[in-house]
Amino acid sequence: GLAVALAESILNARKGVEGAAISLISEMRSVYLLFSESQSRVLISLDPESVFAFEEIARKRTIFFEIIGKVEGSGLLVKKSARNVLHVSHAHMWKAYFDAIPSRMGKKTG
């Protein structure tokens, strides 16, 4: 779902990128909005100077897009209709993502 895609993007981003602030407007329940897996959706992260060019290309091809946030801060903050629905630190995401399997196998990671 969206929350996992955002977390993976943050954890696998270039050095210096440690967070994202996302703002969503939807009638869907937050759990469904963040964790359901839907086909035909793509999460794209762009440098700010590339946003206008991306918008032009998408409009020219009549592709619906929505800008939902910015790469900033540390960790993942998701707001839905101006209310915080998810706030996870970078360290917590790192541990959950990279240490889950090794810790279940009794191994320590760095």
Structure explained in plain terms:
The chain is of the alpha+beta class. It is 36% helix and 21% strand. The protein has helices at 2-11, 30-35, 51-60, 90-98, 100-104, and strands at residues 18-24, 69-71, 74-80, 83-88. A 4-stranded mixed beta sheet has the order 2-1-3-4. Helix 1 crosses helix 4. The longest helix is centred in the N-terminal third of the chain and has 10 residues, at 2-11. 9% of the residues are buried. The mean pLDDT is 89.
**Spatial arrangement of strands, main beta sheet:** 2-1-3-4
Output the radius of gyration: 16 Å
Q: Please estimate the helix content.
A: 25-40%
Summarize the biggest pleated sheet.
Answer: 4 strands, mixed
N- and C-termini, Cα separation? 27 Å
Order of helices and strands: HEHHEEEHH
- The count of helical stretches stands at 5
Which structural class fits the helix and strand makeup? alpha+beta
Unreliable stretches? none
Mean pLDDT: 89
Q: Give the overall shape.
A: globular
Percentage beta strand: 15-25%
Total number of beta strands: 4
Set out the fold topology.
Layout: H1 2-11, E1 18-24, H2 30-35, H3 51-60, E2 69-71, E3 74-80, E4 83-88, H4 90-98, H5 100-104
Parallel strand pairs: 1-3
Antiparallel strand pairs: 1-2, 3-4
Tags for this model:
globular; 36% helix; alpha+beta; 21% strand; 4 strands; four-stranded mixed sheet; 110 residues
